[in-house]
Amino acid sequence: MKPEPAFLLHKRPYRETSALVDLLTLHHGRVRAVAQGVQRPGSRSRGRLQPFAPMHVTWVGEGELKRLRLMEGRGSAALLAGEGLLCGLYANELLTRVLPVEFEVAETFAFYTAMLEELPRPDGRAAALRRLEVAVLEALDALPRFTDPEGGELDPQQRYVLEPGSRAFVVAEGGIDGRTLRLLARGGWGEPGLAGPAKAVTRRALASLLGSRPLRSRELMLELAGRRRPPHT
Fold it and tell me: What are the boundaries of the signal sequence (predicted)?
């Protein structure tokens, strides 16, 4: 196979000197593989297999678990620290949890790459994460439809919440007004004035894909923020 652009999403030790990895790749989506010998001291591949660092990889194997053959760096890792690093860890955990194995998500890969460029900048983080989340929801056919359960238009004067397990909105006190939801439906996910509603909608939409097990990255963000609500994830 030709070398495939990829990013490391998750890595854990495997046997004595190897690692089990989840990769986000351009043409094959999430790939699970064994990186043999990568935990060995002095391994050249060890330094290349790092989060947020662009790579080219190849693998072999017919089953769900592949074996990596080639890992080459193709640029410097994004320099993330503090909140930016936590946002990156959130994105990696989210993709590991919700993307099916070997399900092509080329557009998600593009938004992930763009997100890494924005995370070092505090004013770019929220919009970059929302765009990635929307790309994931769209790829998995789980993006809200911005209609009521019967398919009707949302009333600008009413307030709505996304119905659990559904892509439609239902009237609910304390929800998001229909006018704002209409703006989101037109692609306003990255607008500064819509940051709060956009986050509320994507979080509720992703909840049905994530299930009951909480995201560890979100819990870490809460701990480091003194139990305050995470600002972006």
Answer: none
Question: Is the separation of the CB atoms in 218 and 210 below 8 Å?
Answer: no
Do 107 and 140 contact (CB within 8 A), yes or no?
A: no
Task: Work out the burial of residue 131: count CB atoms within 10 Å of its CB; fewer than 13 is exposed, 13-18 middle, 19 or more buried.
Answer: buried
Separation of alpha carbons 99 and 111, rounded Å: 14
- Per-residue confidence (pLDDT) for residue 212, from 0 to 100: 86
3-state helix, strand, coil in the chain (%, to 5): 40, 20, 40
Q: State the DSSP code for 121.
A: S
| Strand ranges in the chain using DSSP code E only, listed in sequence order | 4-14, 18-25, 29-35, 55-60, 65-73, 159-162, 169-171, 176-177
Instruction: Give 18-35 pLDDT, tens digit per residue.
Output: 999 999 999 999 999 999
